[in-house]
Design goal:
With 250 residues, this protein is mostly beta strands. It contains no helices and 21 strands. The chain starts with 48 loop residues before the first strand and ends with a strand.
Length: 250
């Protein structure tokens, strides 16, 4: 505290010198082959950018339109993320600088999915040239809707409803049956069975009210669409007309 007795603005300071030290490793290392010829490539930074996806709600194996900038590269593909550890790289149907059209892979599950545009680079003098990682766009989400492929006509109270759906429902997904405004939780898949199933077995409660209900399936927040009457001459034009399920007495 000796500095406090002087009427000066000085403060104690210290200087440090930092340098790198190379430590030779004792672990064995791979000896690479000598370079025969150096190839240097200079490319402008033109990363693809997704601005919008249409439609935002789509059925399985439908086609999505990706709009954005710098979408066309030397090799253009789209990447769909199934989960953190699994992805699908897919060729596009058509590509332009501001638009890509791609068909969804059948492996995708219902719910929120994401897509990215991937530009790989063909480098090297060999034929065919070697593929290298290039530029990747931002990720954009879309909703993949479940679809009831064979709607049943009726089921009894306390009975078991068999429902065929597309895409298959995964073991880790949350699914429920929507009858009108009522919800019936669907039991998860067996741990000893396959990871996904196209057929769901849904127990109907014994006390479920009788009646005719609009039938929907909800998987991870995505709901199967209802059919709308598109005949202008019909009295139900532009209204929901199905699918419907009748709950009967045992």
């Amino acid at each position: 505290k000796i500095w406090t007795i002087f009427e000066t603005p000085f403060r104690i300071s210290a200087a440090y010198q930092v340098s790198a030290v190379l430590i030779e490793s004792k672990r064995p290392r791979k000896a690479a082959l000598p370079v025969r010829k150096a190839l240097v490539y200079a490319l402008p930074y033109r990363a693809p950018s997704i601005e919008s996806i249409a439609p935002q709600r789509i059925l399985s194996q439908g086609a999505i339109t990706i709009n954005g900038r710098n979408l066309k590269g030397q090799v253009t593909r789209v990447r769909f993320m199934i989960d953190r550890d699994h992805e699908i790289l897919k060729e596009v149907d058509s590509v332009k600088s501001d638009q890509i059209i791609a068909t969804l892979p059948r492996e995708l599950l219902a719910g929120v999915n994401t897509v990215e545009v991937v530009h790989d680079l063909e480098l090297g003098e060999e034929k065919p040239p070697e593929m290298h990682k290039g530029f990747i766009s931002n990720s954009e989400p879309f909703m993949l809707l479940p679809q009831i492929t064979a709607p049943p006509l009726s089921v009894t109270q306390g009975g078991n409803l068999k429902l065929r759906v597309n895409p298959p429902v995964g073991r880790k997904q949350r699914a429920s049956l929507l009858l009108g405004e009522r919800t019936i939780p669907i039991p998860p898949l067996s741990l000893t069975g396959p990871d996904t199933s196209e057929e769901l077995n849904i127990p109907i409660p014994v006390d479920f009210p009788k009646g005719l209900y609009f039938l929907r399936l909800k998987v991870d927040g995505a709901e199967s669409p209802l059919k709308v009457e598109d005949n202008p001459l019909s009295p139900d034009f532009n209204k929901y007309i199905g699918p419907k399920l009748e709950i009967k007495n045992p």
